[in-house]
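>> received
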Amino acid sequence: MLSTGVLLGIPLDITPTFTIQSIETVDIPGQVHLCPVATPVIQRDQIGMVVDQGDVLIENPTVYSQDTFLPTQPVTLVTSGMIRTQRVARLSFTPFLYNPARNELRAIRHIKLEIHIGKDDFINTISIPVDEGPFESLLQKTLINYDQARFWRFLRQPDPFVQDELTPYVTMDLPSYKIMVDQDGLYQVTYAALQSAGVPVDDLDPRTFRLLNQGIEIPVFVLGEEDGFLTQKTISSFMVRK
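>> returned
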C-alpha cells in the first residue's frame, strides 16, 4: 500500500508516542482490485554474478481474504535512526485503506495527530545545539520540529577519518562497497540486496554505516540499527544528487 511520511527529531533517551485525535475518510466508488507488492527475483549465474530476473506478483490468500480495511493502523512511528548526531523518528502515513475481500478502497482526507515526546527535562538535552555544518540545511529542511530537535543532539568525539567537516573521508583501510545510481533521488538498500551482492551481512553493525558521494559523506538513515545487528528488517535510505 502506498505510504508517505515525515521525519521527527527526538531525544536520545525518549520513545515518543502519538494519538490520533480525528480522522476523516471518503469511500472511492466502484470496485478496485489492488495488485500485491512486486517481489524481486535475483539469481546467480555460473560464475557467481548477480542476475536480476525481474519481479513476480504473488497474492497472499490469507491477506486477500480479510474482510476489513487495511492497514488497521494508518499511522506508524518508527524510532530507530540517526542523522549525524540527531536521533530521528519516521512518522509514516498510509493515505488509502483497502478491503481486499470486498475490493473496496477508502481514502483518508484529513487526519489530526498529537505527538507525545515526553517530559521536558531530558537527560541528553544540551544548552547549545550541536552545529552539523553542511548537514544543517538538510536537517532544517527535513525535520518538522527542527528548532526544537536541534537541542536534543549529542556531542560527538572527533572523527579520526575526517580532517574537518568539509574534507573527504580517507577510507582506503576500511571495507567499502559501491552503489550504482543513474539519477537523482531517494534510494533504499535492503538486507536482501546486500546479501545478494555478496556483502557479509551477518558480520556488519548497521550503526557503523557511512555513505560517500564522490568522496564526501552524505546522510544515510538506517531503519532498525538500534540493536547493532543487520537483519531483514534493516533498511538504509539516502538521497543522492549526482
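>> The longest helix spans residues 136-142.
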